[in-house]
Design goal:
Family: Belongs to the TonB-dependent receptor family.
Radius of gyration: 32 Å
CATH architecture of one domain: Beta Barrel
Number of helices: 14
CATH class of one domain: Mainly Beta
Keywords: Cell outer membrane, Membrane, Receptor, Signal, TonB box, Transmembrane, Transmembrane beta strand, Transport
Pfam family, one: CarbopepD_reg_2
Subcellular location: Cell outer membrane
Largest sheet: 22 strands, antiparallel, barrel
CATH topology of one domain: Maltoporin, Chain A
Protein name: TonB-dependent outer membrane receptor
Number of strands: 55
Length: about 1100
Amino acid sequence: MKNRTHPWGIFDYSNKFKLQMRLTFFFLFIMIVQVQANSYSQNAKVTLQLEEKSIEEVLKKIETLSEFKFLYNSKEIDFERKISVNYVKEPISRVLRNIFLDTGITFQVINKQIILKSDLNKVTSYNVEQRNKKVFQQVITGTVTDDNGMPLPGVNITVEGTTIGATTNFDGNYSIEAPSNESVLLFKFLGMKTARKTVGDQTVLNVVMKTDSQSLDEVIVTATGTKKRVEIGNAISQLQVSDDVKERPINNVSDLIQGQASGVQIYNSGGSTGMGSRIRIRGSNSASLSNEPVIYVDGVLINNQSNSISFETGGQSPSRFNDINPEDIESIEIIKGPSAATLYGSIAANGVILVTTKKGKFGKARWSAYLESGLVQDIGDYPKNYQALDAAGNPGFNFEAAEGEFTPSIINSFQPLNDPDTSPFRTGNSYGVGLSVSGGTEKINYYVSGNFGDNEGVLPVSNIRRTNFRANLGTDITDELKINITTGYTNSDLELPLNDNFSLALMSQGLSGNATRDVNNGWGEFTPEELFTIDTRQRINRYTTGLNTNWTPNDNLTFRLAGGLDFTSRWDSQFFPTGEAPAFLNYDEGAKFSNRFNEFVYTLDAVGSYEANIWKNISSRSSIGFQYLQNLTQGTLASGFQIVAGSRSIAGAAVTESSEQTVESRTVGVFVEEQVGFDEKLYITGALRADRGSAFGASFDAVIYPKVSASWLITKESFFETGDWLNSLRLRGAWGASGVQPGTNDALRFFTPIAATVDGGQNVTGVTFGSVGNANLKPERSSEIELGLDASFFTNRINLELTYFNKETDDALIFRQLPLSLGVGEGRFENLGSVKNTGVEVALDLRILETETTYFNLNFIASFIDNELVRLGDGIQPVIFGVQRHVEGYPLGGYWDEQYTFNDANGDGLIAIDEVQVGELTYLGTPFATTDISVTPELGLFRERIILQGLLNYRGGQKLYNNTASWRNGNNNTRELNDPSSSLEGQARAIASKFYGTDAGYIEDASFLRLRELSLTYNFSRELIKNIGFSNLSFTVSGQNLGLWTDYSGLDPEISSAGQNNFVTEEFLSQPPVRSWKARLNLTF
């Protein structure tokens, strides 16, 4: 039914809203006062394109292009040093930092004057005599490029231990004189990792610089615009992933994130092709609502619907998150907690993932192409089906043998899933091809790409074909007005088997089959051939577009207006052919389901910011913003049964059904933020956001989310001694709140139409309560305290990020059962609960070895998370779903069952029924890992000609319910019931489950160590390939899921048969994760 929505007059003038308006006008007043202060920001921008000019000439050029004047002591600065610069509308502060990088020169902005000072402590060895001293000089030339092969102009190059320096020109070329062949050249550029190269006997030295995602000067995207990392008081993970698809076995966006960010856990659900994953950021916050993060692509909120399918496929389902094309992604930022996500409001408590797609850069057209091919393999070791027979051929069980009632003579065992003559599994093939072009002028930049991929699964009816197109255009209408347009299109066709989590599907028929290869080849009731006649598909046409307008009327004011649409047309279809499909649910007579959905997500953002120096070295940034979000889903569902033979249409059905769905929600938010910086080393930020949404109860007013944070670069303080080992130390802390909205209809009272018969036999239409609703329903509210530090040691060769968080969710939605006497249905959601997550996150980046020809880096991330349901609500009984429960004082979704003990009293190696004793109901563990550690090694050989990297992941502290084994035990075909040589523990758990109804023995430790990725890349010599017109050419061979070490006895400790379900976590008749291999050729020209 259609949800009521609030109009634009959604905010009434309650006391809370009046307070919001007063605060808004207060911040506006601050901005107006600052505008009138007639200050000239040090962030004024200039365009400089100079080659081989002296420092003095460059400074004079800046003076002519701006209102700044330079003050300095001419004896302290080497004005004769020649440099080349190429900046297009860059802040002067950034230009100066690059010009004087590692020269000992600092600058201070006071009004419209820039004072240059000499700080000798910032130079490794400042020796004026050495500058003038003439010794044997070796001239080194070369080209500096980024890791995409594009030249980098303006890179600072110095000879370590001296003041000899140079910079690259427009084409990334440089020339420098080195005192000896033992000299070390340092290549430095803001936002890039410092490169260190020994001269040796070379006269030509080409260098590739890599992006530094840990740099405090790195630019981070926020709700109010871009900021430097040093200004932000929260831990935000920024992943530079543009090259990951070239060098890692990446199949979807989830693979890009897996193991790359502390506090972020990707839970793969199984091995079916095209299926989604659960994403958890700092634990689970809600017992009833989704715990998935929200996703923005280029500032546009997108549909991140999990379990995105409308009929029975078992437990697995696709996720709209993986519609995004990894090839088009430049970077991913992960905003982890409520304290960081405050300005994203009532949708953001579970975290925010910001995806930025690639854009063109200044320069000539750059073409990139790739061709890849791969294969996937089923590596499951499926348990055999057993049957014990006595000498007369009668079946029996171990527990009967223990009582002397059965003497086994023959133990038969067979598994059609394993036998190569009966197994339905194949080696699936995949291939992909893509082409992109990017470039730009001073006024326009562009990026255009097209990609096609075809991936087969390990079953004949498991395939996905996907086509992606993207066109991003940026233009400077004037010097003050810039517009960026982003567009993306996805078309996919997913074919699914009826398999996981279904007792009549493929896995079940193999795991419940016969213990011998009989006339049915050991299968159960249905064969693979029958099951493969079912045609299950999902077709997607998705279009995402965004318009981002930035207007900077002066150097202080910035206005941004952004809007976008994410539209998904989804067609789910399932067909059971008449006379061919398996005979369950009468579908052998023919059945067709055809469900079509149109899903719209609209985004509108407006932000105004003012930046100024309000007093000497005190800077201010004031922002005010507005956001409007709308989600609309329209569905038409049709089905037909008893279809005439030969027809695939509902029109050929004897019985038809149809229905419609319309679901709509809207949210309006306003926010203000004030940031104050002190001498570019201490930043304090405060913010407020107020939201009102159509999903809120009618009697609930707007919700307010506050935030405060601080970031202190303590190593810039004069009293702090860093020594030679510490490069930088930043302390940070934040407190803030954000929320998660109720379901679209959770607050509504609505009625459901029914057919009724009144006195006299007349048929009429009536109504009954569909939901009693809750006029006081409000969003769940998560507040978080975060404390942390960022440190760099030994010339940035060791980088550490350490974070502690304490997150509490109040007003958690809990379903309260209502008395049936009220006649209002089962119950309603109320804000009753409280959930707590605490943890520690560690990110350690080690540059262990750096020589002229070899490097070895090690990236280590770890998360330690504890989850607790603090309060369920007065009078609310534990929420039970199978062997999992929500119980106060324990983790959400914890496993509970009756423990048991056993004793083989007579020592005969067999467990009798009465030798098992069952105890009380006991908490057995959590389904989610409490410890998650990932190690990513990277080894470069022969001047990065060969690059070897991998991903090793450990997860511990979690349990998994092996319901597959329990179910098979109920079918009497497990080894524990039939084979006398099976372990006593196995026999006991089989008896406990079969006769005492407890599955505690099947809730197992699911800790594991997995080699998730391994790849080898060969980069062809640039001197060689430039002769054939290429600027970059590489070949990569990679593998995924290459090794597993675990004590878990089931198919795989990561299986989740319920797919992306919020909490249900079990292995039940599911295909385990597959192993994949891929070969890829990348070229740039």
